[in-house]
């Protein structure tokens, strides 16, 4: 006949083993639940990233483009009053989704705050004034005007730049309403933009 102490020990041992088994099952269930939710978050993040890419909104994207004068040639703009859109550009650098259409337009694909800049190389001494503009769509955002004071100074460069809110689909381009010749090479005439930060 077993003693009461031995029966009590067996009961306590059995209870402890059962309790440990239950706790182990609970811990395993919690771990599986945590893994499930983590995988769900990863899937949701992947879907969000795909949607952002599809809609042209990629957090932290490095949107930028730099175009340079092409051909080492002299280009004459149209007569005063008409807007001459400069299209003698060659793509030297692009990053992100910005595109150039070979007709003078640099198209933005992500909403954000951008730094836009341009430099033009003037080539003539027969005029008193020369200059150029930078546009977003059909609106002037930057304007350069230079007075040619010295008739012997036939070469001159002028740089302008600024910060602007630009939305997806808007086009940036360089033009002039002043009939002047410009000289294009990759060092002296250029145009570009890069994103500072996207809209929230």
- CATH class membership of the largest domain: Mainly Beta
User: What structural category do the secondary elements indicate?
Assistant: alpha+beta
Task: Please provide the count of β strands.
Answer: 13
Calculate the mean pLDDT score and round it: 78
Classify the helix fraction into a percent range: 25-40%
Strand content: 35-45%
Largest sheet: 6 strands, antiparallel
The CATH topology of the largest domain is given as: Jelly Rolls
| Overall shape | rod-shaped
Q: Would you kindly provide a written description of the structure presented here, covering whatever features stand out?
A:
The protein has 200 residues and is of the alpha+beta class. The protein has two domains: 1-55; 64-198, Jelly Rolls. 26% of the residues lie in helices and 42% in strands. The chain contains one helix and 13 strands; from the N terminus they run H-E-E-E-E-E-E-E-E-E-E-E-E-E. It has one helix at 4-55, and strands at 64-69, 73-76, 84-85, 89-95, 99-100, 106-107, 112-123, 129-136, 139-147, 155-166, 171-176, 181-184, 190-198. The strands form three sheets. Strands 3, 5, 6, 8, 9 and 11 form a six-stranded antiparallel beta sheet that branches. Strands 4-1-13-7-10 form a five-stranded antiparallel beta sheet, with no helix packed on it. The longest helix is centred in the N-terminal third of the chain and has 52 residues, at 4-55.
